[in-house]
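Input record, target 12 of the design panel.
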């Protein structure tokens, strides 16, 4: 896989190698809209037959499932039999969550059999304010600074003129 910038390529190679070598912690891609976070996260997940889940849509599906089934568990949305189980949680913090949604995200993040690649437009302090320290602690568990990608540059979509 080749990317348009050296830093994206370096992050891609680093994360893929870490996961191939047994790393099981999460990764975060942060930055303003249109910087390629979702594309980069998706390409990493593809290396492991991972899945991309748009967080607002995931929460909506979970709510529908809860209303439909008596024996409901949010873990069924993220469980997978193959290893590694790589899941992109796209647009994490894209809108203000309800208390129920925060609880569901916590339960998902507690599921230790998945590696989450989280894309967000928010900084860690903004995530803590939106979700609380409990969620942020689960997201950041066992991560180091090299596991965070800060997308730079201009919004690629806004280059189009019409």
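The sequence produced for target 12 reads:
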């Amino acid at each position: 896989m080749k990317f348009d910038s050296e830093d994206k390529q370096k992050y891609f190679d680093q994360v893929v190698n870490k996961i191939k070598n047994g790393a099981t912690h999460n990764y975060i891609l942060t930055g303003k809209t249109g910087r390629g976070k979702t594309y980069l996260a998706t390409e990493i997940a593809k290396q492991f037959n991972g899945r991309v889940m748009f967080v607002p849509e995931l929460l909506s599906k979970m709510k529908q499932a809860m209303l439909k089934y008596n024996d409901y568990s949010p873990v069924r949305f993220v469980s997978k039999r193959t290893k590694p189980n790589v899941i992109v949680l796209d647009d994490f913090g894209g809108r203000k969550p309800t208390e129920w949604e925060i609880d569901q995200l916590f339960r998902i993040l507690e599921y230790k059999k998945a590696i989450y690649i989280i894309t967000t437009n928010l900084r860690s302090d903004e995530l803590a304010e939106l979700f609380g320290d409990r969620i942020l602690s689960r997201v950041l568990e066992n991560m180091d600074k090299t596991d965070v990608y800060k997308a730079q540059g201009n919004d690629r979509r806004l280059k189009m003129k019409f």
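The mean pLDDT is 90.
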